[in-house]
Each structure stands twice: as C-alpha cells, then as structure tokens.
Q: What sequence folds into this?
C-alpha cells in the first residue's frame, strides 16, 4: 500500500489495532515508504527558515521516528545531533540511516535532558499526544534547551470547510475516536487537535517566547495566507 516499499493493508490494520508504541515498532521497517513520513519539502522549508537564526551547536529531534528530521538538524548544527523516541523499532531504523547521531529511547512527556541543546525540532508528532499531554512535552523541551535555545516545528493551516481535505481529516479523527472508545489499547493519532492558538498559549505557559515564520516555499491558500508556518519558540536568556 502507498508504494512497493510501503506496508500492506493488513499490516496497517494490525498497526492500527495496537498501542502507539507497538504500532510504530511494527511499522518502522516500512515507515519511510508511507505518507506518514514528513516530506522532504517540509523539512527543507524548515531548514531554510531556521538557517538565518543559526548556526547552532547541539540539536535534538523530538519524536524522531526513523530520523527524517536529521535532514534539518545536520546542516544547521555544528555539534552533537540527537533524536528521542519511545519506539525501539523506529530508533533502530534511525540508527541505520544516521549512525553518527545519538539516539535515545524515552517518553517525550518526560524528556531526560537539562540545558543540553541549542535547537530542538519536531515533525508531525503532536497529533500523537492528547491536548492534556502537550504541556508536559513543552515543559520538557524548555528544560532540555539552553537559555536562548529554540524549539521549532511546522504547522499547517486548516483546510477550508468546503474542501475535501477538511472532511477527510474530520472523518479520520472521528473514526479514531470511535476506535479508541471501543478498543484497547488506544492508538492516539489525531490531525485536528493542535490549532495554532492552542499551542502558542501552551508554549508561552511553559516559559517560551513564541513567534511564527511563514513557510513561503510551501505556497499560499486562496486568501493569500501561507499554507504553513514555522512555530518558533525561544527559551529566554534570562527567566521572565
């Protein structure tokens, strides 16, 4: 399914009926052959937006999966680059693809770092956290960054209500809620739980100063606004 290198429909069904961790362990060998892997154009747009703010020393990819975020971190960071994820299967793939990076298995809601990194990124992972869990992630990233460090991630504008994309995402999230209501363990994967206004407020509550940068290379919507923005959260040099 998706491509000759991607998982079969049966494999996806088994994954979807597993826990998030077990599901991604199963999917890991074929993950890069699915649309769930962050496209290079988004990684490259993020790199271009961050480049004027660098160079950085040490970088961290939060919820790193198979390591696609190294395409952004490696050109920007002169020192250590690392990834953290709770799936052993995904980390095994990442180690094979990027043997010079450091890979850490941990729950991102309890990040095991303190003032270690200058740049942290995450791609496509916030939908795997319930809204009530995001503050713990943001607090952990704030703690992991050195003063003056940056946490960045792309966020796309919601599709218009009249578009097929809007109803497809709404239908997916509804189906996932039904699945989690009737099946255990839960598989948390939602596309409509991370509105920009919500994550801005949560990042500010964690101690970040927050701005956004239009990712112009990803195009504009019909009303002229950008299809995607880079959320840029900075840990202040001195505490507020």
A:
């Amino acid at each position: 399914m998706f491509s000759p290198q991607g998982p079969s429909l049966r494999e996806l069904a088994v994954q979807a009926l597993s826990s998030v961790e077990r599901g991604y362990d199963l999917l890991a060998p074929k993950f890069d052959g699915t649309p769930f892997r962050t496209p290079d154009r988004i990684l490259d747009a993020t790199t271009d937006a961050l480049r004027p703010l660098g160079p950085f020393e040490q970088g961290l990819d939060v919820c790193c999966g198979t390591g696609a975020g190294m395409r952004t971190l490696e050109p920007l960071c002169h020192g250590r680059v690392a990834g953290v994820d709770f799936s052993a299967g995904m980390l095994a793939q990442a180690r094979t693809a990027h043997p010079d990076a450091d890979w850490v298995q941990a729950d991102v809601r309890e990040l095991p770092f303190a003032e270690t990194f200058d740049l942290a990124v995450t791609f496509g992972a916030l939908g795997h956290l319930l809204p009530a869990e995001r503050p713990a992630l943001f607090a952990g990233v704030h703690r992991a960054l050195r003063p003056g460090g940056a946490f960045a991630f792309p966020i796309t504008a919601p599709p218009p209500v009249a578009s097929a994309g809007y109803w497809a995402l709404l239908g997916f999230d509804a189906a996932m809620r039904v699945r989690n209501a009737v099946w255990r363990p839960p598989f948390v994967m939602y596309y409509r739980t991370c509105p920009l206004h919500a994550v801005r407020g949560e990042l500010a509550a964690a101690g970040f100063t927050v701005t956004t940068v239009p990712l112009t290379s990803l195009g504009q919507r019909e009303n002229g606004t950008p299809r995607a923005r880079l959320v840029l959260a900075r840990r202040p040099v001195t505490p507020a």
